[in-house]
Amino acid sequence: MDRDKGIYRSYLVRLWQVKGDEAAPWRASLESPLTGEYHGFASLKALFEFLEGQTGGSGSASHVQALEQPDAGAKIEQGEQEKSA
Questions:
Q1: I need a labelling partner for 33 at 20 to 30 A (CA). Which of 9, 26, 51, 72 fits?
Q2: Tell me, what's the pLDDT at 56?
Q3: 34 and 45 Cβ atoms separated by less than 8 Å
Q4: Which residues pair with 11 in a beta bridge?
């Protein structure tokens, strides 16, 4: 995106809680509709830290954790490999 137009981020956000366990933490994932980049989060705190980092806040880059969702681990690993390439 052109710097004169500013910075723009868009994500599809998914939130869920493990069925039958109201005390379980909420899980989240973000997916970029433009690039298909996928990020999984084991807590809402980790999600918010990631978003703060994306917007210049005090967020942490250590947000990616394995999730109890089919294929989530593969997508997370793929995203991390693309970053390091």
A1: 26
A2: 86
A3: no
A4: none
What is the residue type of 76?
Answer: I
User: pTM score, two decimals?
Assistant: 0.57
pLDDT (mean) for 40-64: 79
Residue 66 CA to residue 72 CA, distance in Å, equals: 7
Where are the chain's structural domains? 1-57
DSSP state, residue 37: -
Residue 61 pLDDT more than 60? no
Asked if 18 contacts 24 with a C-beta cutoff of 8 angstroms, the reply is: yes
Residue 13's H or E segment, with its range, is strand 12-17
**Distance (Å, rounded) from C-alpha 4 to C-alpha 68?**
41
State residue 52 phi and psi, 5-degree precision.
-60, -40
Mean pLDDT across 26-39: 94
